[in-house]
Fold this sequence. Notes:
The chain is an alpha+beta fold. Among the domains are: 8-87, no CATH class; 224-305, 2-Layer Sandwich (Alpha-Beta Plaits); 314-380, Alpha-Beta Plaits; 610-679, no CATH class; 744-807, no CATH class. It is built from 22 helices and 38 strands. A 6-stranded antiparallel beta sheet has the order 13-14-8-17-19-18. Strands 5-6-4-7 form a 4-stranded antiparallel beta sheet, with helices on one face. The longest helix has 21 residues, at 69-89. This is RING-type E3 ubiquitin transferase. Residues 596-807, 600-642 form the RING-type domain. One of its GO terms (cellular component) is ubiquitin ligase complex. It comes from Daldinia eschscholtzii.
Amino acid sequence: MAKFQPNPTAVDFRPIQEHYFHSSAPTPRGSDQTLTGPSDSRAQIQCRFFQQGRCRNGDSCPYLHVKDATSNDRLRSTSNKTHAASTQEKASRTIGSALVHYGLGALVEDISLPSDFSTIQISDLPQDITKDYVLDLLRSHNIDTPVEPEVRIIHKPDISSALVKARDPEFAKTAARKLSLQNTSLVVQGKKPTATPVQNHIKSDSSTLRVDCCKVHISWHKPSKTVWLNFGNEGIARRVDNNFRAEKYKILDQIVQCNGPTRGGTPRNPLAWTVRLTGVPAPATESDIQASIIHQADKPRGIQLGRPTYTDDDETCSAKVKSLFTSIGPLDWWEFTPDTTGKRMNASARFQIEDDAREAATLLNKTPLPFNRSAKLTVQLVHMVKFKVHVKVYEAVQVQLKANIRAWKAAHLTYVAYPDSNPPKWYRVLKLEGEEEKQVAKAQDTISQIISGVVAKYDHSTLWHPALRKNGVLFEQLSQIEQRNGIAIVRNKVKSQLQLYGPQKACDISQVEIAKMIRDESSQHFDIQLNEHEFSWALRGGLRSIEKRLGSEKVVFDITPTPKRITIIGTAKDYDIATSLVDGKVEACVETKIQGDQDCSVCWNGAEDPIHTQCGHVYCLDCFENLCFSAMTKDTITSISCVGESGNCSKTMGLTELQEHLSSSSFEDLLEESFNSYVRHNLTVFRYCPSADCGYIYRSNAVPRIQICPKCHVHVCTACQAQHGTMSCGDYKDKLTGGLEASEKWKQENGIKECPVCKTPIEKVDGCNHMSCPCGRHICWVCLKTFPVSRECYDHMTKTHNGIGLE
């Protein structure tokens, strides 16, 4: 096997000269350190991996190794600040086939698709290969990328490989072709490096509801020794042997292994028998051995103690093991938990990057201990998922959750529920951990299903009434149903629906009662849209004048939409009174402060389950969630901003603040809605797969290219967005022109219509006339009129078509 040389010229390729400086200064690593060569002046450049304590090349590294406390502190400080900033205001999620990057206000900053990238695997490389070596190899073969590619080194015994991913669809083909022509003298185990394009995967950096794999469990054996017991009688020796095997005899309360008895007699002592004990705790003394043999008749004639397997103390061992993990990647934390009763030392570590944790589990598991080469280290990757749910929801479903705990324990999973660390305590955090990924994923699905609840429906119709937007009589009746049946009911005012949480039977009973309650409700709702002057009038006392005349339970004030509006829940007469007050500007000059310090910034009533934003404004927990989702239904891409101070605050909210005040499922739904809104407003750049209910997106191209959907495997032309297989766009159009009449006739006969916005085919199978398209529009099946939210679609169907289409 060829020994790896740090100088790339040893394998017949030369790095680009501009990357290095010429210098004849000696390297200060030590008197026994040799120079890398007069032409290689990298010795003057500090090795950043050495500064972080992560350089694996040791003395063979061509870069400068000098302890620089200031530089090290600066690197650590910068790293911490960067990590804190990135985790606070940056996030990424995998949605369908896309990796979506988010910034302030939950706005989409970038979308990456698998087709944007290509990946190559370079195999049969030297064991101590580095990222810089791989990049130099690419440059020496004139393989350039617009941005420095992502390089992942995979170390194996005596040989390594590298995965190189670049944001260039043609990179892998080009690199494989050029590298296949290389004339290299590098041979590793009789093989030359090979380059092969591999399947490209995109993974999310982080997700609250995704299984997190940044943590590892670590353990190793405590120091032990061997002990020999000498007996003059075979019967006694066998009895002691049996008692140790039956665990009746223990040393320092520890079970030990017994190997014997064996005949160990000599001519001077022909009756001697020996019982050998292994795994004896290192601190055990001769007195401890004697004490462990309870029966006096079983006491040995002699005891011989062997040497311990190692002598390092617990903290020293912990530090040495920890260094193995920090050499792979930066840690968020390290926890050493000595076990005074068991035979093993235990520790846990959490990496900042998931790939580092996976690499640590692969590379370090079953490797020799640094302080005991005959013993092995055990490293297990921990799969963890967290859920944040409202206290009200948790109390309704905790019986269903607890019913699964026994099965989770049997699957070696750990489940805990604890209060959220961020006040106020409106949430509970559910955490699930385990070493078996499939078991964790299965339990995760169970929890997700339980805490997702069900949408209240009756005869396929969603149950909702506009009066539920206000805490009036109808809401009181809903609360009574909730308490009577032992469930939780959450209003979603943006989607105009009720979410029920609790046992299935109780939810079924509640849906029947809610349907009857809504049928018996005679009130209607009327929207009054406010222009700028009318809104100003409402703020200066007009709203209170309407509430005084009609009652506060009939008036809903909403400043989140554009234009802002007052909704009247009552009779047509109530609506006429309200409009006359608005039109006549009665009490328009009343300078009354109608919002108190503890009033919600959205509904202007006393905040229910109040939350406080960083800019100092108050919201009902429910109103805050509705505010977030309403931003995603507007006609333009809008970030989530505070509407405090009568809508004048406008401070954009960070992702940390949004995640703090929303449940896990709501936060993830919000990011997905932001993604859908972004795609909906960029249909010239992105397109949804034309297959019904697929949801995957692809990037439109001016140059025709066939995109194969990774989910439904449909072939789509990214230029004309048609499914014409290997046929050219021109031929397809010619064929389509001749058969257009037949195509339209077939659609009519089979009840197929197209979305007026994105032209996606839609088909009604059953249910009401409300249709939702992947592009985000809500469609009336009867007249194909589109709406941004479902509530407006239902209102339209009721008023225009005298119903929603259910018999």
